[in-house]
Amino acid sequence: MQSPPGTATILRVLRVSLHVGFAVLLLVAVVRLLAGVGTAPSPVALSAGLGLSALLAVVYLAGTALEKRHAGDAVRFNPAPYARWWLALVMLLWLLLLLVSSDFAWVAFPLFFLQLHLLPQRWALPAIAASTALLVGALWFHNRGAADGGLQLPMVLGPLFGAGFAVVTGLAYRALFLEAENQRIVAHDLRRTRAELAQTQHDAGMLAERERLAREIHDTLAQGFSSIVLMGRSAEKALDGGDTQTAKERLRIVQDTASANLAEARSFVRGLRSPTLEESGLVETLHRLCAKTEAEAAARGTDLECRFESAGMPVGLPSAYQTTLLRAAQASLANVWAHAHARTAVVTLSFLDAGVALDVFDDGVGFEPSTAAGSARGDGTGVGLMSIRERVASLRGSFDVESAPGEGTVVAIRLPLPTEEGTA
After folding, report:
1. Phi, psi dihedrals of residue 361, rounded to the nearest 5°
2. Cα dihedral sign for 312, 316, 319, 320?
């Protein structure tokens, strides 16, 4: 993540100006040294000046090039741990050049910016002050043999004003640099947070879909397969007893249940509501469910009477409400014929002024509700109550189970009807 375009452009211009200024000042000093402007240098001083200038240029270029390469590709060599050693070498070469010629004095100004950028402020300001003092001393040293020899006021004011300007500009550059770094860090954190949020939402969506499929499989396919197994055993028993008519009836139930299971599987994979609701509506579907439950109980040799009752004026219900009520009735009745050993089961659908209610009553053996909190068991069973509770909670309804050992069971569901604004 890069800095904002305006800040990045300013920083880039300042960096380029710093490097160009250093190169120009160093080149001017070398040209004046070669031209012998002022006092002609000795051959030794000339050779030393040219050699040190070339070495300073190489060292400076190498440091800036490595920094730029690392900025463009973070996996490349990072010169930051060695930046202060590099600065020390640059300053040492500059001081040696000052001994050769005073023309190299003005190279100090871009070096002031480097000191402010690479050193902590509490070290940078004393370093600039020391460099300024050395610069003034070098100018005096090279001017002592002139006609107006000695320390002149311009030799002091020039470096002082230059150092002051460098400090002000450098501090402004540092403020921009730190702001850009903070913005880069914030932008990086924001991008990482967005990625984590997207992953969390993806995981939550996958978990929600798994839970939906688990509920649908339990409330449709699992119960249908259980019915097929029971009907198949009943048909086999009838065939063993020579009762082909009963066997045919049981096999017809097996075929109908398998067809219904297939339709349900296709429906919930597409996220649609039950196909029986599409064909008959909720009231008729619950009536048929009671008749089917009674027939399956009879096939098991259980004398179970299952009735459906409707109260109140029926109203159109949203698809999610109809599906929830149907699945709750299916799961409750499956528990009745599988566990309750009841003789009577009654499913009551009540249309109220502000909601709809479903009650499933049986006169079976009952149980202790506190021991059946709706948690799944390791074999994949025991999710019926949990499935009902989750479906009802998603519609902001209430779900209650009233039971006691030997006193039967009542499963009570209340769903508030949507308001005109579409909220429950």
Report:
1. -115, 140
2. negative
- Output phi, psi for 355, to 5 deg: -175, -170
Q: What is the pLDDT of residues 276-295, one digit of tens each?
A: 676 778 899 899 889 888 88
Whole-number pLDDT of residue 424 = 47
Contact of 327 with 215, CB cutoff 8 Å? yes
Q: Write phi, then psi, for 182 (nearest 5 degrees).
A: -65, -40
- The per-residue pLDDT for range 194-250, each reduced to its tens digit, is 888 877 776 776 676 677 666 666 666 777 777 778 778 888 888 888 888 878 887
- What one-letter code names the amino acid at 142? H
- What proportion of the chain, given as a percentage, has pLDDT over 70? 80
**Would you list the domain boundaries of the chain?**
5-197, 281-424
Q: What is the DSSP string of 17-41?
A: HHHHHHHHHHHHHHHHHHHT-SSPP
User: Which of the following CATH numbers is that of domain 281-424: 3.40.50.11540, 3.30.565.10, 1.10.1060.10, 3.40.50.1820?
Assistant: 3.30.565.10
Strand order across the 409-416 sheet = 305-311, 344-351, 355-362, 409-416, 398-403
The answer to whether the beta carbons of residues 139 and 47 sit under 8 Å apart is no
Report the alpha-carbon distance of residue 56 to residue 62 in Å, rounded.
10
CA distance 42 to 372: 103
Question: What are the φ and ψ backbone dihedral angles of 419, each rounded to 5 degrees?
Answer: -80, 180
Token pair belonging to 355: 């909601």
150: left (phi > 0), else alpha (psi -120 to 50), else beta?
A: left
Q: Residue 381's pLDDT is what?
A: 44
Partnered with residue 307 across adjacent β-strands are 346
